[in-house]
Amino acid sequence: MHGEREVVVLRLGHRPGRDDRMTTHIGLTARALGADRVLFVGDANQSARTVRDITDRFGGPFSAEVIEAYRPLIRDWEGSVVHLTMYGERVEDVEGEIRTAHAEEPLLIVVGSEKVPFEVYEHADWNVGVTNQPHSEVAALAVFLDRLFEGRELDREWEDADREVIPKAVGKRVVEAESGPPDDAPGDATPDSTDE
Amino acid sequence: MHGEREVVVLRLGHRPGRDDRMTTHIGLTARALGADRVLFVGDANQSARTVRDITDRFGGPFSAEVIEAYRPLIRDWEGSVVHLTMYGERVEDVEGEIRTAHAEEPLLIVVGSEKVPFEVYEHADWNVGVTNQPHSEVAALAVFLDRLFEGRELDREWEDADREVIPKAVGKRVVEAESGPPDDAPGDATPDSTDE
């Protein structure tokens, strides 16, 4: 986020087709909850396009990139590396240390899938479990980011948005960002989650 | 969770095949982060089976059920209803009120998908946005539960588990719950996330 050290989310183990929605949701969650960039490994162009499209419409800065090889990135990362895994240390035990580290240097958050090579565990400064239960890499990333930023990500301002959702007790209100008339639409005009 | 009012997650809009993984991840996130039950609407038997299988192995109490009709459930719910939607009020503004309500009565959390009927917005006591950005219903549910329980869900104890993951700085350690020898396996023996 603006004024803070960079936070980058690296999504490992994307399987084209099968993982498209999960990978897209990881990218959108990274964007919505305060990360600066998401990196997908391999053939994840469809997910990257969807995340960029949302950024074009709802604002940034945020970037989604597809890379070929993640090992050099992790090895050469100039900052701290966190790997989210149900086998790791309890998030509540290590989040303070990680926040302290992030105050000083950029943070790479590695989000795996089924099989993460052991070298990722070894290279990580922290292997972190958001619970030691099997659930969802999207959920783990979301809780981790909310705790990392201690809720500051919810106040993030968005630049260069075409549209903006105005919080509403009942119904939906979407306005053109900065200018233009409100479009007050209680109905089901716009999807709540993105679906590719 | 034990000693608290019941928290039930209702997942609307499941499309068989297409949504199986998202629906499963919602169920597993509900379980891991402190809810007591998840209800899926329609043909979501595969997701319910996966969630029950994880509960059998990693412990409970937690139940996953498939229901036919959600309208009577929302209408007749004896407690508060929260609907998670990117169009809703900001979670940071309403979470205190919701915690106060949950101290007194059960809480139903409705998690939608693409199109949620307007009557759900009207019946909800709170429509809540975990950010007003498009991202992921799994991420929204995760952050909401972590904030609802203020982290208490991370200390939850599990009953009747076959196995237990022991937090570890590097690698993986899974033991038989309560008895049996440890199975210390630094490698990729067990999936980090569940995949059906």
Strand and helix order of chain A: EHEHEHEHEHEHEEE
The strands making up the biggest β-sheet of chain A line up spatially as 3-2-1-5-4-6
* Termini Cα gap of chain A: 26 Å
In this structure, how is the largest beta sheet of chain A organized?
6 strands, parallel
- Integer average pLDDT of chain A: 91
Number of domains of chain A: 2
Q: In terms of per-residue confidence, which ranges of chain A show pLDDT below 50 for 5 or more consecutive residues?
A: 184-196
Bulk shape of chain A: globular
Structural class, from secondary structure content of chain A? alpha/beta
Beta-strand content of chain A: 15-25%
What's the CATH first level of the largest domain in chain A?
Alpha Beta
CATH fold name of the largest domain in chain A, please? Alpha/beta knot
Most extensive interface: A-B, 72 and 72 residues
Quaternary organisation: homodimer
CATH architecture of the largest domain in chain A: 3-Layer(aba) Sandwich
What is the fourth-level CATH superfamily of the largest domain in chain A?
Answer: SPOUT methyltransferase, trefoil knot domain
Share of residues in helices of chain A: 25-40%
Number of helices of chain A: 6
